[in-house]
Amino acid sequence: MKRRILKTTLPSFTLFLLALMVSSCVDTLKPDYFDVIESEKVVYSNDFGELDLAGFENGRLFIWRGDTIAGYYRNEEVAVNLNNLPPHNYLKITFEILIHDSWDGNPNDGEISGPDYWYMGYDDTEVFRTTFSNSPCESTYCLYQSYPNSYFRQNRPKTGATQTNLPGLCSFGAFNNYTTRYKISKIIEHNNDYIRIYAGGDLKQTNAIDPVCDESWSISGVEVVAFQVI
Ligand SMILES: [Ca+2]
Ligand SMILES: [Ca+2]
Fold this sequence. Notes:
This protein is mainly beta. The protein has 2 domains: about 1-35; about 35-230, Jelly Rolls. The protein is about 15% helix and about 40% strand. Strand 3 and strand 4 (about 65-75) form a beta hairpin. It is globular, with a radius of gyration of 20 Å. The two termini are about 20 Å apart. The site of one calcium ion has 8 residues, from loops.
């Protein structure tokens, strides 16, 4: 009997591990891959349309192009605090963010203009740190970004974006293609009934008169889904 259980559970476990590896690579949860999802529940969802900042740290809202969003931020952190989470062993965290104006991506040019990092994590654990670039990209000039990978990888500006044709917010407000929208999902192992999820910017622009006008970011949505997988 024991042998039979071992035979049936081992492949399932292997499949589960494989599913995790696959899902962490593509950053989307594919419930079909899991052996059994016992429960799946959206535990937090906020597009700021209801002006709801309950549990949201450093939240400030503004209207941009008819949409209420949180921001804009430069070298600041925001966080979502969730309590009384249902039983779970995985969380999928999704931020939809807007990268405004002249982000410079990867280049480390002596602490003048970069790297321009954005990061997210929970409690004491940083889950993801990357860079974004809104720079033009031609054969003679291109400031590469790390996203959709973690820092450091050389990807073209705006790789992985969901929308690129928006004007800048401030210094490039008169120019199209200077705000870029990204939807970023990460799956974490987690089982406490509380969590603090954070996101922040770590930008450099020492030669700008008004750095927050030179580059900033906003949040247009946050979603957290709890999964109980067996
Ligand atoms: Ca810049
Ligand atoms: Ca910069």
